[in-house]
Amino acid sequence: MIRVFHTSGDGSGWAIDEDLRQIRESLRGIVRETSLTNAQIVHAPFWMALAMHPPEVLAGRYVIAHADNPPYFYLKQPEFVRAQNQVDLWVARSREAEEQFQTLGLSVIHIPYTIDPELFFPLVTTRDEKQKLRRELGLPESSYVIANFHRDSEGSDLTQPKLQKAPELMMMILRRLKAQGCDFHVLLAGPRRHWIRGQLDAEGIRYTFVGKEGISGDDFGLNILTRPRLNELYNAADLYLVPSRWEGGPQSVMEAAACRCKILSTPLGLARDILDPASQFRTASEGAAILARDIAESHLSVTVEPQFTRWKNHHTTPVLADGLRRLYGRLPSEPVFLAKSVQPRRGISTRMQRVRHTLSRRFFPHHPPRTVSVCHTDGKDAILDGIIDQLRKSLERSGVVIADAKVPAVESGVPILRGWTASDPESTRVIQFVSPTLVDPIPVGSTVVAPSVQDVLNLRQRSCHHPAVVIPLVFDPDDSTHEPLVVAEGDFQASVRIWQALLAGRAVLYPERSAYYEQVFHAGLPYANSVELARRRELLKRDAVEIQALARPPERSLVDLALQNLLLEW
Q: Could you tell me if 487 and 211 are in contact, meaning their C-beta atoms sit under 8 angstroms apart?
């Protein structure tokens, strides 16, 4: 049997722990679980857990890693640079993620998200049974119940809405429903529901929170519900609402579908694989219109059975088991290893390397370098000149010393941060900053920093497959007009203009066949053709205030932190 080491879950009984449990169950009798020392394969249910283990040890193993979010999102995290150099095979959990991995040139297999059908299933078949369940849960029997069990508050600041889950969009929809006089009730569960509960209280919108109340601090360890309890809540609801900006799943889409609960979601991640088009929305006005109609006519009832069937056929535990077994059945025939940047250390035992790595992380944490060399000559590319100027300002704010670029960095031992130079620096291990229009060759061994995901894709189109990270070093808002920015079809060099528009509070219309959504999120709309462009432009004008309020342009403090984390990876 193949010897496999599984990295850890999240330790809280949440999604990654459940993924790890399902992976182990699926591979029982197919592989032999062992220590990292004896493993041939390292299998990570979540790729970030790989950081807990020595790179030199991982370099000698075949590494399989699951990604719980799409890779375009991870391009914005400096830690993903290391993963691009370590993972031999990525497991995509949705078709969206699979396509993105393929576009980035990373080896990938699609094994969809799954849930155990013994944990989530229909409990009620009639309205009387649903009303009885609601009475037991203390929910109104006749109102239309809208459920959401996602964390809506940032763990670092419980007064702020969680960026990914976009509870602001949910509140916009609920306000519209209230203004229309719709009879509805909100059902909340799970930890970190502080922000939305405060908003619902302020708006006088009726809701029920299932969990321990009165906890002003972080309740993450206290309000995670059991799956049988969640199963009851899905069955008691009329509809489950997902307003997220990005998702790998969410698992709640599978759970709601398994319980034959209606679902309304933004068109992201797994939702695109399971949901009917009628169950997907983009704006607050669109979402509220769909919900108001369903409250009045129950028109989404026709989506329940098709969504249940897609879940049952493609997203249950046996499907995961089949996919993993087929994957491992191919591995003994000489899997293709990644040409990893860190090589195994010979003569030092794996155990000793692990002990040293653990002690180093715990007692001698690595710090980013305090001195760097910035190599750039102005005049070649105006946008890149501006990016390097912002880079220098960010380094200064972080207290990083910029060394004299005339001193050979390979001798001074400091990282080289490179813009445009007439000749390559003496060391090929550099951090190369690019603009949307820079087409000069990039030194071998570089890590690329681009303003947007679309800029990384442009490099891939030029067969540039360097590890890449997205850091938007752009801070000059274009407030010359309040009109939406319209990016022309086929324009793939608009990333800086988009950042400048978002910083000025302008909405953005962008081509559907682009990666600009990763910048815009809910602060704009895609279009597929000129007719749709005209319709979307009118929609942006009509809902301008709400759409602009959903903009989340880059913040200097977060950009500074991302740059520090990148230097830490160096």
A: no
